[in-house]
Amino acid sequence: MSLGYAEKLSFIEDVGQVGMAEFFDPSHVLQCKIEELAKLIQKSKHLVVFTGAGISTSCGIPDFRGPKGIWTLQREGKDLPKASLPFHRAMPSMTHMALVELERAGILKFVISQNVDGLHLRSGIPREKLSELHGDSFMEMCPSCGAEYLRDFEVETIGLKETSRRCSVEKCGAKLKDTVLDWEDALPPKEIDPAEKHCKMADLVLCLGTSLQITPACNLPLKCLRGGGKIVIVNLQKTPKDKKANVVIHGLVDKVVAGVMESLNMKIPPYVRIDLFQIILTQSLSGDQRFINWTLRVASVHGLTSQLPFIESIEVSFSDNQNYKDAVLDKQPFLMKRRTARNETFDIFFKVNYSDGCDCVSTQLSLPFEFKVSTEEHEEIIDKEAVLQSLREKAVEESSCGQSGVVERRAVSEPRSEAVVYATVTSLRTYHCQQSLLANGYLKWKLEGSGTSRKRSRTGKRKSKAQEEESKA
Questions:
Q1: How many distinct structural domains can be found in the chain?
Q2: Is 145 assigned a ligand-binding role in the annotation?
Q3: Is the distance from CB of 360 to CB of 425 less than 8 angstroms?
Q4: Residues 6+ positions from 240 with CB-CB distance below 8 Å
Q5: For residue 333, is the peptide bond before it cis, meaning its omega torsion is within 30 degrees of 0?
Q6: How many H-runs (helices) and E-runs (strands) does the chain carry?
Q7: Mean pLDDT, the chain, whole residue set
Q8: Pairing of strands 175-178, 139-141
Q9: Which of 87, 313, 378, 457 has the least C-beta neighbours within 10 A?
Q10: CA 423 to CA 172: how far, in whole Å?
Q11: Mean pLDDT over residues 283-301, rounded?
């Protein structure tokens, strides 16, 4: 979870049990349980996974209730943990990506998450197969038409409040709202209804990295029991639902899931992070029509006023035969203005320098400059999904990032401007599970998540049980 998210929550005295002791199953017991879980998954016809903060701690995001959890340290009067990277640059864990592979294979039918980190969506779980019960720190939604907008920046508010942006759906334009719940907010029907439906259909609910304390969410896995379903809990702490579970595994979630994938003979796919930005070139003739006044802007695809959190600076230069002064844009909004002779043509070169948390340092791009008087508006037809898929494949094949491609190009006649949207691979993670046999015949796991980083050098509760029962009455 985000430290910022925890700070934005309304204050309540009782956040439940914190500072919970962690337990680790002995290696031979853990291996037996992993194999048992793998068999249950293999036999399952309707697997549902229910996740909590414990699946994201290996992503550098602190949990809440563990020995070094946010609420634990707050209660003890200690300093909060330091995030290992910006929240918006957190990347899916081995567990997140294993769930993606299970979904693609048709084994995993639905994911229910209590997390607000948005990592299930970023990992590749389809939105229609995901309930984010408590919201998503990177999602805005339109209360009028229901459109959703996944951002590359953390939305500034929580508590279903209006944000500073509007819906871009034609004939709508309503003010958007954040999607993250505060303590007093009820679970949205859009999220809770499909979650309940799939839990009732499930023959196996796998709970990963959750203390199962926040109501009413924690009661969802129990709904599979009436239909004969089974529950497996993987968590380092004991939970109030352990007695209802068929199997309780005390171990690191990544280690358990990696072992399950190995038992199922399934590989964990890599994660490729692709970010979008647009370069907008606006041109106009001077009063005497001898010169062109032009403005160059590098902006977010989410709106001209939105930040680009993954870009630190942009170096702009020109063709060798031009005498224009180079520029370094190091403050947002990234904007520069120039005046040139009307008939000049040349190339503009960009070096996009990425911010901390990105695996690549920079990307080189170019844009031709030529003034044409036109009254036509047009948009070039580009297969965006094909471009994105090609970038992913190249990143994995080359084991590197920094690849880029154009996914949108449009021209506007008044004022004369051209906008080019670029997609660029900013991070890559591959996941390896190395196993070796111990003397007693049991497997020892070594988990690795590797990126392509280089050393950088730069110039609770939602409702009480009484309230929940009252709402059902």
A1: 2
A2: yes
A3: yes
A4: 212, 213, 218
A5: yes
A6: 9, 21
A7: 86
A8: antiparallel
A9: 457
A10: 27
A11: 91
Cα–Cα distance, 220 to 223 (Å, whole number): 6
Q: Is 333 buried (19+), middle (13-18) or exposed (0-12) by CB count in 10 A?
A: middle
Q: Which pairs count as long-range contacts for 30-34, CB under 8 Å and 24+ apart, including other chains?
A: 30/249, 30/250, 30/251, 30/255, 30/256, 30/259, 31/259, 31/442, 31/443, 33/247, 33/249, 33/251, 33/256, 34/249, 34/256, 34/259, 34/260, 34/263
CATH code at position 205: 3.40.50.1220
Span 309-318, mean pLDDT?
95
Asked if 75 and 114 sit in the same domain, the reply is yes
Location of structure tokens 């005046």: 339
Residue 468 in 3-state DSSP?
helix
Establish whether 59 is an annotated binding residue.
no
How many alpha carbons fall within 13 Å on the CB side of residue 257? Answer: 28
Q: Taking residues 145-155, what's their average pLDDT?
A: 95
134 catalytic? Reply is: yes
Region of poorest pLDDT, from 180-184, 198-202, 229-233, 257-261: 180-184
The last residue of one of the domains, among 267, 285, 304, is 267
Residue where a domain stops, chosen among 267, 297, 332: 267
Is the per-residue pLDDT at 250 higher than 90?
yes
**Is 386 found in the same domain as 349?**
yes
Query: Between 279 and 6, where is the model more confident?
Result: 279
On whether the CB atoms of residues 368 and 362 are closer than 8 A, the answer is no
- Annotated ligand binding at 401? The verdict is no
Write down the pLDDT at residue 437.
41
Residues 6+ apart with CB under 8 A from 453: 359
**Residues across the chain:** 473
Q: What is the pTM of this model?
A: 0.86
- Is 360 annotated among the ligand-binding residues? no
CA distance 340 to 318: 12
